[in-house]
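for the recovery benchmark. tokens below, seq after
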């Protein structure tokens, strides 16, 4: 697995690079024979160090985690452990998903908008939000349980997918109470989704 360790306004030494590469490779290789790549970015968060990890297990399966600590090594170790916990939680399903053919998907435009600012009292209502970036994203065809797994592994706030049974667009999202919400405009019978273990 190709591991990249980089600093964001933080100097990353060779010793830390080696430490992260070995530990992250060991944590991921227990479950995947050929993960694509992983990136750990170390940055400052006020007086703390923050480590953000993104592991591309396959083209459509991503594991993300982050942690903060007073020193770089504990921050990196905690982020690696959080990623390992997510992988362990779904280890059987991940292996099945990994050995299956890649899920069907469609490409869709994805736009990032700047937040709207409050207009001055004398100004009229602002026209539209400024576009920061335009790109493409993939909407996979998944079972609801697989969509929940991907939401949790990727530490995502929301995931849109095509329902594997009826092909309609569905959304799963993380609620403020830690549970997972599921929106199915087709009105299919919904099963209660168990909380996706928010504690990392």
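predicted aa per position
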């Amino acid at each position: 697995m190709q591991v990249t360790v980089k600093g964001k306004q933080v100097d990353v030494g060779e010793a830390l690079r080696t430490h992260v590469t070995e530990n992250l490779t060991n944590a991921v290789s227990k479950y995947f024979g050929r993960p694509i790549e992983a990136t750990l970015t170390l940055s400052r968060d006020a007086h703390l160090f923050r480590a953000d990890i993104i592991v591309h297990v396959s083209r459509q399966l991503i594991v993300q985690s982050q942690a903060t600590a007073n020193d770089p090594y504990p921050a990196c170790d905690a982020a690696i452990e959080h990623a390992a916990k997510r992988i362990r939680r779904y280890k059987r399903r991940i292996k099945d998903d990994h050995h299956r053919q890649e899920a069907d998907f469609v490409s869709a435009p994805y736009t990032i908008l700047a937040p709207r600012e409050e207009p001055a009292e004398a100004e009229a209502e602002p026209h539209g939000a400024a576009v920061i970036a335009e790109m493409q994203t993939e909407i996979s065809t998944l079972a609801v349980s697989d969509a929940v797994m991907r939401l949790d592994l990727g530490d995502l706030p929301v995931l849109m997918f095509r329902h594997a049974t009826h092909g309609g667009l569905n959304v799963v999202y993380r609620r403020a109470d830690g549970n997972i919400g599921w929106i199915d405009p087709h009105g299919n019978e919904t099963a209660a989704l168990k909380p996706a273990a928010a504690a990392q």
